[in-house]
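Our working data are protein records whose layout never changes between entries. The record below serves as our worked example for the rest of this section:
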Amino acid sequence: MPYHVSTDEFEFVARAALDLVPEPLRVRMEADNLLIAIRDGTDDDGSSDDVDERVLGYYQGDTESVFSAYEYPKRIVLIQPHIERWCRTYDELVAQVTDTVLHEVAHYFGMNHDDIRQTRLRH
């Protein structure tokens, strides 16, 4: 059975994951107005979204590099019900949110999936 938490608790876990990003990188993210958004699995009109349930989060912005021009806002989106579906305990939820946040931060800084696998970017 999936492990569910309130939106407030999920945001708390996501903020804690962001705190693991080294400060010089967080400063750059803040200066660039990077947004962190949490989706509840529905579109703005309340209908079910069409994002594959295996997608836990994504980076929306320029895929070349953080330093490229891109129309704002750049953002990392976490899909709460998709992440919760993979978790059975609070500890698993924290680990999955952390891994997802770090993965999407890596995309923000221009890393592709191969780069991320090679660095073993995890908490």
